[in-house]
Design a protein that fits this description.
The protein has 118 residues and is an all-beta fold.
């Protein structure tokens, strides 16, 4: 079993930065991919960024060059550094984990609100 606990959301200014963290508890060796999703009011959940167990990353086009996903192995934590924030980044952000051999994300955090507004 794996538990994910997000932190770091809040209010950010347009053009500013926020960093989200996702602490991973449990059988971390069962995880193949970690991801950040987001869901804005009235919209479908969107995959924002992924990082694999070998460190490969991928981003949705709208955040490329602004967001960075990274893993902090010693603390079993995944971060999402969000720079050059835009109002359209406002959403609830979720951390998710994909297990080895699984076709869908098996584990989800509780979500953290990010609001970008002046």
């Amino acid at each position: 079993q794996v538990q994910l606990v997000e932190s770091g959301g809040g209010l950010g200014q347009p053009g500013g930065s926020l960093r989200l963290s996702c602490a991973v508890f449990g059988n971390i060796f069962s995880i193949n991919v970690m991801a950040w999703y987001r869901q804005a009011p009235g919209k479908q959940r969107e995959l924002v960024a992924t990082i694999t167990s070998d460190g490969s990353t991928n981003y949705t086009d709208s955040v490329k060059g602004r967001f960075t996903i990274s893993g902090e192995t010693a603390k079993n934590t995944v971060h999402l550094q969000m720079n050059s924030l835009k109002p359209e980044d406002t959403a609830v952000y979720y951390c998710a984990a994909l297990g080895h051999g699984s076709s869908r994300y098996d584990y989800w955090g509780q979500g953290t609100q990010v609001t970008v507004s002046s």
